[in-house]
Amino acid sequence: MLPSNLHSADELNNFAQKIKDWALELGFADAKIVKPSLEQYKAQYQQWIDSGYHGTMEYLADHGDLRFKPEELHEGTQRVISLRMHYLPESVETVKRLQTPEKAYIARYALGRDYHKVIRKRLTTLAKRIEDVIGDHGYRAFVDSAPVLERQIAEQAGMGWIGKNTLLLSPKAGSWFLLGELFTNLPLPVDAPTQTRHCGSCDACIQKCPTDAFVEPWVLDASKCISYLTIEYKGSIPVDLRSKMGNRIFGCDDCQLVCPWTKFSKHTQENDFQPRHKLDQADLIELFLWTEDEFLDKTAGSPIRRTGYESWRRNIAIALGNAPYNEVAIKALESQKPASSELLQEHIEWALDMQQRKQHR
């Protein structure tokens, strides 16, 4: 039940604006309200799954129709509050770091504290503020951690549009931001949906993808995406893709970097998203020689922990193979080979072979 002071349209509109103001106070860049209609995406999504474009991410094929029925994911859902938060620090280099092959490139969202924790805490605080005013309203917070079609929800809320690179683009902020959702049982007034996808004839993201992971506009073969390969995939990286990975050891930002809308991006002011352990400028050799204890210590509370120590070193071995000839790199690779797993040895041998080829050019 809504309190008596929230029954008229004007009262609900005023309260919805108050929620958005609170969101900005909590560090979000924008907040929109939507009553999502997601059944329309079911056939296309299932076709994507049937094509195997999700790779080994079986969780994307699980949960039945929950991702298309918000009211079943959270009982009583009437609206979704869609929010975004900037994550790129002003001091962090992007293109320049990609062009320095002996340095590691880590997707810029992963340099600081785990965004799941940062955003979920803010969402919960926002929900509690709402609760302080009207009492129990029935809510559930999500941050890329459940079967939620967050980009489709954000597009329907008017937050921006889904670009050809499958990321949400904002005319105010490009795509250097993260999304979160607050499912609520409140019948709040909704915002106007995004009517037009403003990509036009531009296909820079498709043409510049290092591994040609885009099947067509708006269709990503995740099994070829560097983000998938370096984070989610735990097996042997296909040989034909290794040289295309460059120095990208965790994630990939290329389809954002080449997008014209990136020029409108805003920098984050969040301390939690500032780089830890100088990961924005670390040498590949230094990271490759981390012990497992060092890895666990320096990735505590970081999204990088998700990849695991073995995959971390597998990824760096590939990057060292792609780097210019370096005797120190060769010694580092050779020193780690004897005690490594069969999987890691395979990638170290590939890297050594690549280094030796460069020596004789």
UniProtKB/TrEMBL annotation:
Its main location: cytoplasm. InterPro entries: 4Fe4S_Fe-S-bd, 4Fe4S_Fe_S_CS, QueG, QueG_DUF1730. The active site is at residue 144. Residues 186-219 form the 4Fe-4S ferredoxin-type domain. [4Fe-4S] cluster 2 binds at residues 209, 225, 252, 255. [4Fe-4S] cluster 1 binds at residues 199, 202, 205, 259. Catalyzes the conversion of epoxyqueuosine (oQ) to queuosine (Q), which is a hypermodified base found in the wobble positions of tRNA(Asp), tRNA(Asn), tRNA(His) and tRNA(Tyr). NCBIfam families: tRNA epoxyqueuosine(34) reductase QueG. This is Epoxyqueuosine reductase.
